[in-house]
Amino acid sequence: MIIKPRTRGFICTTAHPKGCEKNVLNQIDYVKSKGEIGTVKRVLVIGSSTGFGLASRITSAFGLNSSTIGVFFEKPPSKGKTASAGWYNTVAFETEAHKEGLYAKSINGDAFSNEIKEKTIQLIKKDLGQIDLLVYSLASPVRTHPVTGVRHRSTLKPIGDAYANKTVDFHTGEVETINIEPCTQEEIDNTVAVMGGEDWEMWINALKEENLLAPNFKTVAYSYIGPKLTKAVYRNGTIGKAKDHLEKTAFTISDALKDVNGEAYVSVNKALVTQSSSAIPVIPLYISLLYKVMKEKGLQEGCIEQIYRLFSERLFLDKVPTDSEGRIRIDDWEMRADVQEEVAKLWEQVTTETLPSIGDLNGYKTEFFNLFGFHYDDVDYNLETEEVLDIPGLQKTS
After folding, report:
1. Which residue of 30, 120, 192, 294 shows the fewest CB atoms closer than 10 Å?
2. Could you state, in chain order, the average pLDDT of each consecutive group of 10 residues for the chain (398 residues)?
């Protein structure tokens, strides 16, 4: 079929196999150009098919020479209907990994469920024995609790007072004011249940009970803090409460890992165009201005550059550098005072009319469509493309 982008709000409902392949190959080429970081034998990535999770799996395989298992929840293709982008990303990743003799298998299903945890445990037992690193990179808006059966849905709201600030419709470029009413306590609790640290800890406990964590095991989850101008809706809002919980969970997990000399960390990453960030009010406009400033200063990084730097310069050092809250700060370039001062000045100036000249909305839009395999110059989108592709190492889950 001939595949074109179809958008609905902040998501694209189609994905292009060749474009997704290009996205993955570009990231693999970047890691290979930087050279091997070292060796970590066996890596499990929870949420491995897009964004930081995909970059983590690519960096593990092609930078650490690791055997990898990826867990994700993606829509498979059918005749006349494309898969979700993460499916095609995984097809491309596993194809390249297998070409180089690297072990790579995947499980598609609800990572919050006991069933998928058990399938993963059995696969590790059968093929790897133990794991040396677990990357937790889930970004789901909904979670059905595996014990209570309650379905929790996260929200993006401020706490206490209503919030008003600028935002942009990145499809049209229109800058407008958005007003968000404050959350309820129930909405805070639900957001923490979905995006906090409970499921991360459940994964670690389940693997530990089966003796699947190798000596000197490490685990890392991803978080975000952001600047003052997004603080009310992000870090001081419902999502911020979930991130606080995630970050506290790292200490609880580290305590539980003492018998294997293990460590748990949260890495605070920079603002990037992802499927998740596109849904957060204010963030697309902030990123458009941030990209302009960071590109001019030669500081811009995408997911793969961030994760390569995390793995090569932070996570595997004998003494991992952290901030006063015990977090790895790979957002350090974004949060540099000179960067934030310039973004704050541009924020005061930004309107629908000024954004094209003072921001990088085109860069934002290009990266958004790149997530789904579109807007790559060297992919011919007028050609017929096979939409039904199998993931080489996909495991049966039923």
Report:
1. 30
2. 90 95 98 92 97 97 97 97 98 98 98 98 98 96 96 95 91 92 96 97 98 98 92 91 97 97 97 82 92 97 97 95 97 97 97 96 93 96 97 90
* 124 Cβ neighbours under 8 A, 6+ residues apart: 42, 44, 69, 130, 131, 207, 212
pTM above 0.70, yes or no: yes
Contact 53, 47 (CB under 8 A): yes
Tokens of 216: 């000197």
Q: How far apart are CA 152 and CA 190, in angstroms?
A: 5
Using alpha carbons, select from 59, 68, 134, 131 the residue that is nearest to residue 98.
68
Backbone angles phi, psi at 71, to 5 degrees: -120, 135
Alpha-carbon span 360 to 356, nearest angstrom: 7
Helices (H), the chain: 17-34, 51-63, 85-99, 114-123, 185-195, 198-209, 238-256, 283-296, 303-310, 337-349, 355-358, 361-370
In whole angstroms, give the CA distance from residue 357 to residue 343: 14
Name the residue among 210, 171, 169 with its Cα closest to residue 44. 210
Q: Residue 346: which of 229, 218, 179 has the closest Cα? A: 229
How far is residue 24 CA from its own chain's centroid?
Answer: 14
**What pLDDT is attached to residue 170?**
87
Catalytic, out of 234, 265, 286, 364: 234
- Is 286 among the residues known to form the active site? no
User: Which residues, in sequence order, are bridge partners of residue 72?
Assistant: 108
Q: Find out whether 166 and 285 touch, Cβ atoms under 8 Å.
A: yes
The β-bridge relationship of strands 174-180 and 163-169 is antiparallel
Q: Which amino acid is at 267?
A: S
Place of tokens 């491309």: 92
**CA distances (Å), 301 to each of 196, 304, 314, in order?**
26, 8, 16
Q: Are 359 and 60 in contact (CB under 8 A)?
A: no
